[in-house]
Specification:
alpha/beta, Rossmann fold, Dihydrodipicolinate Reductase, domain 2, 2 domains, six-stranded parallel β-sheet, 9 helices, 13 strands, globular
């Protein structure tokens, strides 16, 4: 039986959401997903839901009374559902951090959270070192750069296909070079991590981004480099991709679980 103080609902029920559900189930009875919000055209089968409440309308989900909602769907889902949840006093965690590259949407979300006295949390996703960036920002950052490297298969279905023959690559190839605002807009499924870096550091326009397709890698690689008054640092992670979705690092799914645990924990250390 679900603890009413921990009524967790998901927006979306794709690979990341299912990975999160399974992980929470394995961890015991402290946290469990009780409902999902999915547009009717994308509704999973009853067997996939395994007893979860299914809602197609955000008002129905609000009536169910979640204490926390986790968005695992898309930038459009953030725009469509999250402001309403926040205005109704429902704390929300978002995975599609790239959506916050839209300054107008960010302002709408901030106002909605203020009106509803609720809290919006953006997960760290596949990257680390964001606590360092946030701390260093207080003294001034001169530069922040992010480099993301994935296999060509992970870039299928993105603008990279328009300029590079991904299936025929034999060596490491830059598929994008620009800033975090452009990256988040053009590569929303693959580059949410750039948005997390931008938010923690010097913003979307000032954060440099390079995206690479490399046929010789089997992990998703993320590197952040920063310089400022504090000194400098470089951090690199090599993440296994989510088994059901090579565009997403497994660590990104794990970061959602951590955000949920921290949300309900009395002492945040």
């Amino acid at each position: 039986m679900l603890d009413d103080r921990k009524r967790i609902a998901l927006i979306g029920f794709g690979a990341m959401a299912r990975s999160l559900q399974a992980s929470l189930h394995r961890s015991g009875d402290n946290f469990a997903v009780g409902a999902v919000l999915v547009p009717s055209e994308f509704a999973p089968s009853p067997s996939d839901l395994d007893g979860l409440k299914l809602f197609h309308d955000v008002s129905e989900l609000i009536d169910w009374g979640p204490s926390l909602v986790v968005e695992c769907a898309s930038h459009e889902a953030v725009r469509t559902f999250v402001p309403t949840l926040l205005r109704n006093g429902i704390d929300t965690i978002i995975v599609s951090v790239g959506s916050l590259g839209d300054k107008m949407l960010l302002d709408i979300l901030e106002l909605a959270a203020t009106q509803g006295r609720s809290r919006l949390t953006a997960v760290s996703g596949a990257i680390g070192g964001l606590d360092v960036l946030r701390s260093a920002r207080n003294a001034g950052l001169r530069s922040v750069a992010y480099t993301g490297t994935k296999s060509p298969n992970a870039w299928m279905g993105t603008p990279a296909e328009d300029t590079v023959d991904l299936a025929s690559l034999t060596e490491s190839t830059v598929i994008f070079e620009g800033n975090a605002e452009q990256s988040a807009r053009l590569y929303p499924k693959n580059a949410n991590v750039t948005a997390a870096v931008a938010l923690a550091g010097i913003g979307f326009e000032a954060t440099g981004v390079v995206l690479i397709a490399d046929p010789n890698v089997t992990t998703n690689r993320h590197r952040v480099q920063a310089e400022g008054a504090f000194g400098s640092f470089s951090i690199e992670l090599q993440n296994e991709p989510l088994p059901d979705n090579p565009k997403t690092s497994w660590l990104a799914a794990l970061s959602i679980e951590d955000a949920i645990i921290r949300h309900f924990t009395s002492i945040d250390v």
